[in-house]
Amino acid sequence: MQNDNVKLKNIAIVGFLIFLGLVILYSAFWGPAKKFGDSFSSARTVTVSASGKVTAEPDLARVNFAVVTEGADPESVVEKNNQKANAAINFVKTKGIAKEDIETVQYQLSPRYEYDESARKSFLNGYTLNQRISLKIHDLKNNLKKLTEILAGLAPLGVNEIGSISFEVEEPEKYLSEARNQALARAGEKAEAMAKALGVRLGRIISWSEYGGRPPIPYYEGGLGGGGSIIQRATAPSIEPGTQEVITEVSVTYEIR
Fold it and tell me: What SS3 state is found at 162?
């Protein structure tokens, strides 16, 4: 009786060792081999490309203006320039432009030299101070009038240079997402049409990629008045922000069954 129990115990141990060996064999060879074999099942694929395009209205305007003052005395130049620049900044604040949307991007005092042909040498002929300020105007749809009023009101305050005006979309990603969804939908329709024409069925998506996806490019208006100088009049200019296109392209690879 005792010998029979020993035999059963040995058989159980051998059975367990065989089972354990099979598990190890599967993990080491059969599992990877199956995955490797599955990779060949996706060898029959079709890749399609499609694009999506969304038109967006700019909702942010950026304006750069400057006060440029010249003179023989640097202290006098600085005082006159600062008075004009401060007046311009206070003016745009009265138009509802928040402090965080006003930034001094340049403050440069430079000596001005001239060349004397007879003496064949350069001499100091004064100083030039260039103080440039950048503004951001949000919610452009409702604040376009504010933009034109600011442009018209800067010149009488001594602002003698306005750079280009740019129009942008503050949250381009939401438009890019819409364009992406549009492109993916078109890719799916194209793939279904190709599969039908070829007499096959589409399987799972193997891979997809996006390229060329780009937010709207800022649109620039040229400097007012030519040469960067604004027209010395208080008439409000006509400003048209236009529209901008958000474009993206996708490539999708499907399994063919």
Answer: strand
| Amino acid at residue number 256 | I
* Residue 154 CB neighbour total at 10 angstroms: 26
Q: Check if the beta carbon of residue 111 is closer than 8 Å to that of residue 102.
A: no
**pLDDT tens digits, one per residue of 185-206:** 999 999 999 999 989 999 999 9
Who contacts 44 (Cβ-Cβ below 8 Å, separation ≥6)?
Answer: 255, 256, 257
CATH architecture for residues 45-55+173-215+248-256: 2-Layer Sandwich (3.30)
CATH fold of 60-168+219-239? Alpha-Beta Plaits (3.30.70)
pLDDT the model gives residue 42: 47
Q: Compute the C-alpha angle 129/134/140, nearest 5°.
A: 150
Residue type, 211: Y
pLDDT greater at residue 68 or residue 223? 68
d(CA 164, CA 60): 14
DSSP letter string over 182-206?
HHHHHHHHHHHHHHHHHT--EEEEE
